[in-house]
C-alpha cells in the first residue's frame, strides 16, 4: 500500500489523513466526500518555488485552477504566494470572491468570449495568454475602447508532443490551442502587436501535455523557442521577457508511475533556459510554470460507502459504491487508473481483487477493475487515492446525482470548504413547462 503525504494507518486500523480519521470524516460529512491533505499541497507548491529560488532566477508558479477550483483552494494558493491560471469567467469570479490579487491572475483559454474579456479587463487581470487571431482582435478593440493597457503572452504550439495520453496532448502542431510556430502564425501575431499602444506583448507560452515523467520534452521546447527568439530579435526587435513553460508535471497514481520531484523538473528547465539564453546572447527571461495536477492531485482522496456486491464465478467480483463517474469521470474518459484501500480496515490483508463500480446507469461507470481488498462488507468505507485533480472540477449531475462536499484536513482539523449538494439543489434552476393541454 502506497500512502501519500500525511496519510497513515492509525491504532484502530483506520486510514488517517492530516491527523484526522477518515472514518470520522465519512460519518460527519457523509459519502462520497473529497478529502484534501493541505500539508501535501503546501509541500508540492513549495518544492517548485524553492527550486526556482535556488536557481536565482525570476519566476512565477501559477496554480492551474482547472485542476481543482473553489474559494478555499484559491485562497490557499494566494497564501502560498502563487499566481493563478484561469480559463473562464467562472474561475475568474472564484478568484474575485476569494480576494485573490488580480495582478497575479493569468487568463488562458482558446475561446474567450467578448463578455469574459470585458470582465477580465474590469477586474484588472494581470496577464492575458492570447490563443488565436480572433481573440487578439477582440482584445485590441476592448483595450482601445476602455483606454486600458494590459500585459500579454502568446501561446505557441512548438511541435513537441510529450509522452502522454492522446486526449490530453496539447503541444503538437495539430492542436486547438495556440499559434503554430512552423507555419508562421506566431510571427504574424508578433507583427500585429508590435506597435500596439495598449497590449504589451511580454513573452510566450507553451504547454506540451500532461502526466509527464521526464524533462526531455521541456528541454526540447526551450531549444525550439529560443531558435525563434533569435530570429524574432533580428526581424521584429522582439525579445521575450517571459517564457511560460506551462504545466503537465506528472504524479504517481499507481505502481509503475515514476514522476520526478518538483525541483527536478524546475532544475532541468532553468538549466536549459540559461544555456539557450547564453547561446543567443540574451538575458535570461522570467520563467513561469503552471502546475495544477502536481499541486493537488495526490493530495486528494475520495471516500465512498460500499453498497451492493456481485460475484460472477470465474469472471469477476464487483462492489458498488455510492459515487462513480459523477464525482470522478476520468476512468470513463481516459481509462485512468487508481489505487485504494478500505479506510475502516486499512490494516487488513487483501484477500481478492474487486472491480469497483459506480452507481450510474452506465456500464462504463467503473472506477477500478482490479483493486486488491480484504473480503468486503456492506457499509465499508472505500478510500480512492489521488483524486485531487479533475475530480471535483469535472463532477457532474448525471442521473441527477448530487455533487459531493469537499473537506480540507490539516493539523488534526477537518474543515468543510465546499458544501455537498442537496436534492433541492438538483431542481433549483428548473422551470415548469406550460403545456397547451394544461393551460
TrEMBL record:
The modification N6-(pyridoxal phosphate)lysine is found at residue 66. It is an enzyme of class 4 (lyase). InterPro entries: Ala_racemase/Decarboxylase_C, DAP_deCOOHase_LysA, De-COase2_C, De-COase2_N, De-COase2_pyr-phos_BS, Orn/DAP/Arg_de-COase, PLP-binding_barrel. The active site is at residue 361. It catalyses: meso-2,6-diaminopimelate + H(+) = L-lysine + CO2. Its EC number is 4.1.1.20. CDD domains: PLPDE_III_DapDC (cd06828). Pyridoxal 5'-phosphate binds at residues 248, 290-293, 390. SUPFAM superfamilies: Alanine racemase C-terminal domain-like (SSF50621), PLP-binding barrel (SSF51419). Pathway: Amino-acid biosynthesis; L-lysine biosynthesis via DAP pathway; L-lysine from DL-2,6-diaminopimelate: step 1/1. Keywords: Amino-acid biosynthesis, Decarboxylase, Lyase, Lysine biosynthesis, Pyridoxal phosphate. Substrate binds at residues 293, 330, 334, 362, 390. Residues 40-296 form the Orn/DAP/Arg decarboxylase 2 N-terminal domain. Specifically catalyzes the decarboxylation of meso-diaminopimelate (meso-DAP) to L-lysine. NCBIfam families: lysA. Belongs to the Orn/Lys/Arg decarboxylase class-II family. LysA subfamily. Homodimer. This is Diaminopimelate decarboxylase. It comes from Alteribacillus persepolensis.
Amino acid at each position: 500500500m502506497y500512502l501519500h503525504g500525511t496519510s497513515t494507518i492509525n491504532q484502530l486500523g483506520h486510514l488517517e489523513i492530516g491527523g484526522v480519521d477518515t472514518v470520522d470524516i465519512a460519518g460527519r460529512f457523509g459519502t462520497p466526500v473529497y478529502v484534501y491533505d493541505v500539508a501535501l499541497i503546501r509541500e508540492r507548491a513549495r518544492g517548485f518555488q524553492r527550486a526556482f529560488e535556488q536557481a536565482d532566477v525570476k519566476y512565477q508558479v501559477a496554480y492551474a485552477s482547472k485542476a481543482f477550483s473553489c474559494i478555499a483552494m484559491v485562497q490557499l494558493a494566494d497564501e502560498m504566494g502563487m499566481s493563478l491560471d484561469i480559463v473562464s469567467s467562472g474561475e475568474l469570479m472564484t478568484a474575485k470572491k476569494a480576494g485573490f490579487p488580480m495582478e497575479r491572475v493569468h487568463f488562458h483559454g482558446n475561446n474567450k468570449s467578448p463578455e469574459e474579456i470585458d470582465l477580465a479587463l474590469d477586474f484588472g487581470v494581470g496577464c492575458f495568454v492570447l490563443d488565436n487571431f480572433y481573440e487578439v482582435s477582440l482584445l485590441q478593440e476592448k483595450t482601445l475602447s476602455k483606454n486600458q493597457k494590459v500585459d500579454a503572452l502568446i501561446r505557441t504550439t512548438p511541435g513537441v508532443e510529450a509522452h502522454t495520453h492522446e486526449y490530453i496532448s496539447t503541444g503538437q502542431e495539430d492542436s486547438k490551442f495556440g499559434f503554430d510556430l512552423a507555419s508562421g502564425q506566431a510571427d504574424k501575431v508578433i507583427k500585429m502587436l508590435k506597435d500596439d499602444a495598449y497590449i504589451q506583448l511580454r513573452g510566450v507560452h507553451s504547454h506540451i501535455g500532461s502526466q509527464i515523467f521526464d524533462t526531455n520534452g521541456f528541454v526540447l521546447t526551450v531549444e525550439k523557442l529560443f531558435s525563434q527568439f533569435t530570429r524574432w530579435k533580428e526581424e521584429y526587435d522582439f525579445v521575450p521577457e517571459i517564457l511560460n513553460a506551462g504545466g503537465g508535471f506528472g504524479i504517481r497514481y499507481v505502481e509503475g508511475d515514476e514522476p520526478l520531484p518538483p525541483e527536478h523538473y524546475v532544475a532541468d528547465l532553468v538549466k536549459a533556459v540559461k544555456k539557450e539564453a547564453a547561446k543567443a546572447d540574451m538575458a535570461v527571461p522570467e520563467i513561469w510554470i503552471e502546475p495544477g495536477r502536481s499541486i493537488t492531485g495526490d493530495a486528494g482522496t475520495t471516500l465512498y460507502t460500499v453498497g451492493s456486491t456481485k460475484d460472477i464465478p470465474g469472471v469477476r467480483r464487483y462492489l458498488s459504491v455510492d459515487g462513480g463517474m459523477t464525482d470522478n469521470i476520468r476512468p470513463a474518459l481516459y481509462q485512468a487508473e487508481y489505487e485504494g484501500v478500505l479506510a475502516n480496515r486499512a490494516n487488513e490483508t487483501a484477500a481478492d481483487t474487486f472491480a469497483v463500480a459506480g452507481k450510474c446507469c452506465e456500464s462504463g461507470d467503473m472506477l477500478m477493475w482490479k483493486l486488491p481488498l480484504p473480503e468486503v462488507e456492506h457499509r465499508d468505507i472505500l478510500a480512492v487515492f489521488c483524486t485531487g485533480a479533475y475530480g471535483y472540477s469535472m463532477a457532474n449531475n448525471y442521473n441527477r446525482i448530487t455533487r459531493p462536499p469537499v473537506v480540507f484536513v490539516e493539523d488534526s482539523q477537518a474543515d468543510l470548504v465546499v458544501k455537498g449538494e442537496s436534492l433541492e439543489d438538483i431542481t433549483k434552476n428548473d422551470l415548469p413547462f406550460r403545456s397547451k393541454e394544461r393551460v
